[in-house]
Structure formats: structure tokens, C-alpha cells
Amino acid sequence: MNLPEGTHIGHINNSLRDKEVQQVIGLVGLIKTTTQQGEGVILIDKGKIIAAFFTSGDTIYYGNEALKVSNATTSEKMEIRSYTADEYQAAVETCRKENLLIRDDIHIPETPNRLDENLLRKLLVQPGVIAVSAFSDGFSVQSFGDADFDQVAAMAEDLLRAGVKIAQDMKIGLIDQIILETVSGKIIIAPYGDLFLCIFTGPDANIGRIRVALKSIQSDAR
After folding, report:
1. Whole-prediction pTM
2. Distance (Å, whole) CA 199 – CA 175
């Protein structure tokens, strides 16, 4: 079986049904699983499982059976890889030829509070805004603008965790916004539904105006 490699996003050491995994598979791509019993791949299209394959010793499982075996085992490592539209179509064709497609009634729920693209673009069009990324647990869920969004999500997660710890230690309540300002630009991090937003701006961006737009976006997300 020769599926497209796609782009590596990261690894997760969780069960396929855990919320952490569900929050980052609202994408088109591949999940590679490694367990004590064997290895497998699962093709994902925006939260929906399209195909599955699992090998255990000399036994090979296809489609629904592969998914059942994969869910019944404890995953030691899960690699998440994203696909372009062309890579996804090539993967689907390969899975069809190899009888890896599964029934429509087996799926993973959509990412919580699936993002409204128009709402996020309200932030991107603000003067000085370079990029906007919605992230969860260090993974970019949906992004707009010009940036390395894998790096953005990882960096934003580190900054968010530091801010949350400081807020807890000082007993000043929940995080509303985190703003990091340098001579070269600014970063704003804020909750957005079940996710978080990270906004990159240039050095001359009007933070006040962006914060007003962000408050409106957060209100619409509820």
C-alpha cells in the first residue's frame, strides 16, 4: 500500500477516541498508529474516518475490521499528517483499490465548535494583522495569513500555559487575553469556543482596534 506521505504535524500518545485527538483531526490527512499488537493507518476527512488499514503479525485487516482492531488496542504512538487536496484524492483512490474504505456510519465527531471562516477573517482584515491561527494542545486547527502555523501553534501553546500558570499562582482568574509586544511585532492569544486564537501583527498594528474585533469574534463563537 503506497499512500502519500503528506506533511508531518506531530505525535499524540492517546486513544483515537480521546478528546485531545478529536480536536486536531478536523483536517484532511492521515493518522499512523503504532501499538503493541501492530501498526495501522486511518484516513481522515474533516473529522470523518474514510478508510483504515491495520497489520498484526501475519494478519492484515481492512476497512471496518481494521478500525475495530485499532480501537480495541492501546496506541503507543499516533502520528498526524495533513494532506493537500491532490494528496487526499490520491489516498482515496489507493484505499478504494485496496478495499480499505469503510461505511459511512463509522466516524469521529467534528471538531468542537467548528470554526466559522468568515468570523476569523474579520480579524485577518484588521490593519496590521499578518496571520490568525486557531489552535488546541499545540496543534493548528485552522489558520489564515502568512506564517509557519505549526510553529505558531507550538509557540502559542507554550505562551498560553505560562500565562495560565501565572494567573493561577496570582489568583487573578481565568485568562481573557495574553498580549506579547516586541519591537518587531505583537502576538495576542485569546479563548475562542473550545479552542484558542493566536493573532500575529506588525509593530504598528492598533491593538485596541484588534481587541474590539476579537471581543466581537469571541461573542459570535459562543
Report:
1. 0.51
2. 16
Domains defined along the chain, listed by start: 7-97 (no CATH), 117-221 (3.30.450.30)
Cα–Cα separations (whole angstroms), residue 138 to 62, 111, 129: 32, 15, 21
Cβ burial, residue 97 (10 Å; 0-12/13-18/19+): exposed
Are 23 and 194 contacting, i.e. CB atoms less than 8 angstroms apart? yes
217: its cell numbers: 469574534
Query: 101: helix, coil or strand?
Result: strand
pLDDT digits (tens, 9 = 90+) for 118-171: 778 888 899 999 999 888 777 777 788 888 777 777 788 888 889 989 988 898
DSSP-based helix, strand, coil % in the chain, nearest 5:
30, 35, 35
